[in-house]
User: Which sequence fits this backbone?
């Protein structure tokens, strides 16, 4: 057995052991090294009902906030085409964008939307609350949906008025900034819908169509989509199970808010995507712009540091150090969905882990894989 195969066998043994201990449902793992996908494997099940279906590297799964990275690459493609500058004020392209105090929001730039440094609060909720099955999501008790509305300071009538992405942009007029523009950091998922609105106004095209034509097709990511109907009908797609009782959760879908977390992909497809980010000779985006996405802009707030002192955010990437190596990653999660995509540029290594149950073992597995390749 050669060195690489030995490392991969250690990884398989570790994952088998940890998923049995955690009694998880299923997970899909992909590893890329240098210029190849060297590992693609599923553990457990993609679905439990009506029959158990095994999970594998081609199982379609919700990737949640990893979706933001695709939105960011689309924006960087506009930069490459000289259609925008990251330091343009958003109002240059979306004149109707404003927050409660217009004199503040007029200075917010595209870069600040991408890097979560615009001043927005983190708990706006509007982009997720317009999901078509939102009442099903908040249905554990008769009052849970109303409690969610109250938490986000929203009304049901207000949610019904949101039909398009520019409706969300216009909704921001009620938002009061939490800190001066550019002088702090707050993870505001809703901001990425504004980015999609901006992209569509500049190009005159639907973002999802451009995503397919300019990113997915060139990278041969044939099983990555925004269409939840296609995913739900696919025989090799995941369902999601919460807690020890393995209760199936409502399927994650929200087409208007696709850029914040409603794309679907596979471990194999995300392997191809990580190779693009690791090997900067791709025709998708100029190397300097790929690198710019991975440059730290601001330290993240304490609850996002995960015991790290130097964890930062760039353009749709978290940047950290692990055992002296630079880690560039993004994860995602909702109810029983978990996703993590990490690249280690110094090792030319990339790891993606997709779960269809709740918990944190994707982080443990990712660290173990990196440990094995370091050691």
Assistant:
């Amino acid at each position: 057995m050669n060195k690489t195969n030995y490392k991969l066998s250690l990884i398989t043994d570790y994952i088998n052991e940890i998923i049995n201990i955690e009694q998880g449902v299923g997970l899909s793992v992909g590893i890329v090294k240098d210029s190849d996908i060297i590992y693609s494997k599923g553990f457990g099940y993609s679905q439990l009902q009506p029959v158990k279906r095994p999970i594998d590297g081609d199982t379609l799964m919700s990737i949640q906030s990893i979706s933001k990275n695709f939105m960011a690459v689309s924006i960087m493609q506009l930069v490459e085409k000289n259609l925008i500058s990251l330091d343009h004020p958003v109002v240059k392209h979306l004149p109707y964008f404003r927050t409660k105090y217009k004199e503040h929001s007029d200075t917010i730039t595209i870069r600040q939307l991408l890097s979560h440094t615009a001043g927005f609060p983190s708990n706006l909720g509007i982009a997720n609350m317009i999901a078509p099955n939102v009442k099903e999501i908040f249905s554990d008790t008769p009052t849970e949906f109303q409690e969610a509305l109250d938490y986000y300071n929203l009304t049901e009538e207000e949610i019904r008025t949101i039909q398009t992405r520019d409706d969300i942009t216009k909704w921001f007029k009620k938002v009061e900034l939490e800190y001066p523009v550019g002088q702090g950091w707050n993870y505001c998922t809703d901001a990425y819908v504004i980015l999609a609105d901006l992209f569509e106004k500049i190009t005159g095209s639907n973002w999802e169509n451009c995503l397919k034509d300019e990113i997915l097709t060139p990278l041969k990511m044939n099983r990555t989509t925004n269409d939840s109907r296609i995913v739900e009908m696919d025989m090799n797609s995941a369902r999601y199970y919460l807690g020890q009782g393995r209760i199936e959760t409502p399927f994650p879908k929200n087409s208007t808010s696709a850029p914040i977390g409603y794309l679907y992909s596979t471990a194999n497809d995300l392997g191809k995507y990580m190779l693009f980010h690791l090997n900067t000779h791709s025709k998708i985006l100029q190397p300097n712009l790929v690198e710019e996405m991975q440059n730290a802009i601001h330290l993240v707030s304490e609850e996002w540091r995960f015991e790290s002192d130097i964890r930062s955010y760039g353009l749709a990437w978290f940047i950290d150090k692990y055992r002296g190596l630079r880690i560039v990653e993004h994860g995602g999660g909702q109810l029983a969905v978990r996703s993590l995509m990490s690249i280690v540029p110094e090792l030319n290594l990339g790891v993606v882990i997709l779960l269809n149950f709740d918990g944190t073992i994707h982080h443990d597995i990712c660290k173990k894989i990196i440990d094995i390749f370091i050691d």
Q: What stands out?
A: DSSP finds 16 helices and 13 strands in the chain. The chain has a mean pLDDT of 96. The first helix runs from residue 3 to 22.
